[in-house]
Design a protein that fits this description.
It is a multi-pass membrane protein. InterPro entries: LipidA_mod_glycosyltrf_83, RgtA/B/C-like. Keywords: Cell membrane, Glycosyltransferase, Membrane, Transferase, Transmembrane, Transmembrane helix. The structure is a single chain. The chain has one domain. The chain contains 19 helices and 2 strands. By secondary structure, the protein is an all-alpha fold. The radius of gyration is 23 Å and the shape is globular. The longest helix has about 35 residues.
């Protein structure tokens, strides 16, 4: 019994070590050992305050000047962010010292190697052991995963949690005739943890509920039981953060206390749907922005959210059209040279090939809908929600959907390989028949 358990760990461990070696090779290809931005310094500041016993709060603001040097500014706004990444930074700082950004990158390399192993395990469920190496290799080979791992930012951690989420969805899909409680609980926990990194799965529950209902052949009782357990576990995982925010700020903050400004930016008559957002772009109505910015932060958030919602309700057709335009023009657009140079990316040219092959694989997966439907739903959901909320470029905000794209590429590759195998077998039989 113990030898079987040990043998099951050998392959994942070997794959993890291989992936880690690749990650370190990639890190060494850069002339610098890390990149830091205002967002990264905010997370770092929160981690330092936590280790100093002040709690998960930020006590300084940061901005990038015209010379691209990030400077610390007096605190004008306290940002509440998901607690997972600051706690991971605090763990690294506690072990290796404050602001040890090089070790943060090393820690993120460990997460990236773990992500590749999860991709392999998910590939086993979706494609079989014979082809599980394909998503493993594609995950390691996607250069933007490694590029963003060089930044002190949430990207690597979030991709890791998304891969966990997709793995448990695949496992649940395979066990659908007799769902295991452990899988349901772990799926809910994965959603909760992912939301505490970045909250973009918060709106996924309606999609998840309909998917489970369909997967259960429209058996309401069993579908409702599984779905309810997933929601309950997610709430249990996230509730400590909700309680903490309620006590500290006397206001319900599900994950973070900002985002409404970007929501308004993505949903107002002046939004430019083919231009990456900046806070000072002309799509802001100067008079509206000036009047709102005079109010307290919480009031600003409410005002921006209300303006965005009002626009969506009054102009539903325009809202859908603009959201789809943002998806096409920005979210699904391959990384271009200026953007790659701005983010100091290596190997960005592969991005367009991943996208093209992945979308081709998504079309092929429709013929195997029962098995791969969760990948299609997640891809459609994520790209639509991100494009709905704001105006962003594909490089950073598309990263969490790329694991699904990689599985689509793997599906297409397996279909081709199996086709070649069958063709070879048929030709072999013909040759044998002729000899006879």
């Amino acid at each position: 019994m113990y030898s079987r358990k040990y043998s099951r760990l050998v392959i994942p461990l070997c794959l993890f070590l291989i992936a880690l070696a690749v990650e370190f090779i990639y890190i060494n290809s850069y002339s610098v050992k890390f990149f830091i931005s205002p967002d990264g310094l905010t997370y770092s500041n929160i981690a330092e305050n936590f280790l100093h016993g002040k709690g998960l709060i930020n006590t300084a603001n940061f901005a990038e000047g015209a010379d691209h040097i990030v400077e610390e500014l007096p605190l004008t706004r306290e940002y509440v962010v998901g607690p997972i990444y600051p706690l991971l930074l605090a763990l690294v700082y506690g072990m290796f010292g404050f602001k040890n950004y090089e070790m943060v990158v090393v820690f993120q390399a460990l997460l990236s190697a773990g992500s590749a192993v999860i991709a392999y395990k998910t590939g086993e469920l979706l494609l079989g052991k014979k082809y599980a190496w394909i998503p493993f290799g594609l995950t390691l080979g996607y250069p933007l995963f490694a590029s963003w791992g060089m930044y002190v930012l949430t990207e690597t951690t979030y991709v890791f949690t998304i891969l966990l989420f997709l793995y448990f969805l695949a496992l649940y899909s395979k066990q659908v005739k007799r769902s295991q409680l452990r899988t349901i609980v772990l799926l809910g926990a994965a959603i909760g943890v992912s939301n505490l990194v970045r909250p973009l799965l918060l709106l996924f529950f309606p999609v998840l509920g309909i998917w489970i209902f369909w997967l259960k052949s429209w058996h309401l009782k069993t579908a409702l039981r599984d779905f309810s357990l997933i929601v309950i576990v997610t709430i249990l995982v996230m509730s400590p953060w909700w309680i903490r925010n309620g006590i500290k700020y006397h206001h319900f903050i599900p994950v973070s206390n900002y985002g409404s400004c970007e929501f308004y930016l993505g949903n107002n008559p002046l939004t430019i749907t083919d231009k990456y957002f900046t806070f000072d772009q002309s799509s802001f109505d100067p008079e509206v922005k000036a009047s709102i910015d005079k109010q307290p932060v919480l009031e600003q958030e409410k005002e921006y959210k209300q303006l965005a919602v009002t626009y969506i309700v009054k102009h539903p057709v325009q809202f859908l059209g603009r959201t789809l335009a943002k998806e096409i023009n920005l979210f699904w657009r391959p990384v271009a040279l200026p953007e790659a140079q701005g983010y100091k990316m290596i190997g960005y040219q592969l991005d367009k090939w991943y996208l093209c092959l992945g979308l081709a694989g998504a079309l092929l997966s429709i013929f195997y809908l029962k098995k791969y439907s969760f990948l299609l739903l997640f891809t459609l959901y994520y790209s639509f929600v991100v494009s709905m909320i704001t105006v962003v470029s594909g490089a950073r905000y598309r990263l969490p959907v790329m694991p699904a794209i990689i599985f689509f590429i793997s599906i297409a590759a397996v279909i081709v390989l199996r086709g070649i195998s069958k063709l070879g077998s048929l030709l072999g039989k013909k040759m044998t028949f002729r000899r006879l």
